[in-house]
Predict the structure.
Amino acid sequence: VLVEWRFFIEVSGEQLCDAAFDQQDAEVVCRELDCGAPVQVLGEDAFGKGDAQMWTQEIQCRGNETQISFCSISSSQNHNCTSDNNVGLICSGYTDLRLVNGSDSCSGRVELQFLNEWGTVCDACWDMRAASVLCRQLNCGIAVSVVGSDWFGEGSGEIWADVFDCDGNETKLSECSVSSWSRAECSHRRDVGVVCSGSSLAVHDGLVRLSGERQCDGELEVSIHQVWRRVLLDSWSLTESSVVCRQLGCGSVLNFSSSSSSSPEHSHECVTGFQCSGSEAHLGNCSSPQTLNCSSTQQLSITCL
């Protein structure tokens, strides 16, 4: 799926000046061209110089018009506009998002609207950074966990297989760059779900998080009996690590090691004894662990690819 359109803009055969074009105008242009929502307004010859005459009057849209010809136009002209000041625009076909089939509006299967059609997202195309942006956009806090279809069920219809390459600090998913991805490995069995910190499921048994500075590297914490607990190194293996990395949307496991830098608030709450086959979508599907006081300093740190 192509999800970005890039153009410099002409109205009635004349190029638009970047000084006379704003976000509300961009909303109307993307809508009129059936290209979704605006991602970025660009100037300074972003897509090359056109050969049309420069439109120097300011277009004043409210943002809800269906065509730019319905917007009002100011009577004044900007005589400083040249072909070096033509305006460029990037539109995205993804226009809305939601979490479906969860216990509340801050947890569920990820569904995105591409133009007018809703579809699910393949778990191969999603990670914690994209999940955090989605949670922020929904006013649901930050992402606690990325989970598989066994949490919120399989969707139907389209499967969007585009990769959202987010830094994690964007305010909207449309601000992330998008690249195409092969659809060969995607099915509704791989529909991705997200649990945000604003959800009642944020303390659900088996949810995991890493406390490091990076998304996919750090000390492991698991929610057991509505308490976040550190995991002891005892009885832990690469098999359990692979489940955690998969659950976090962080790919495969690179390594795991002992860590003794746990914070004081976790010093008396630990867990041990997970037994996984390696095929589970999340740690909650593995055999029940044992909770205990943290008498050992050999707690667990994981690095995922």
Remarks:
- The mean pLDDT is 79.
- The radius of gyration is 24 Å.
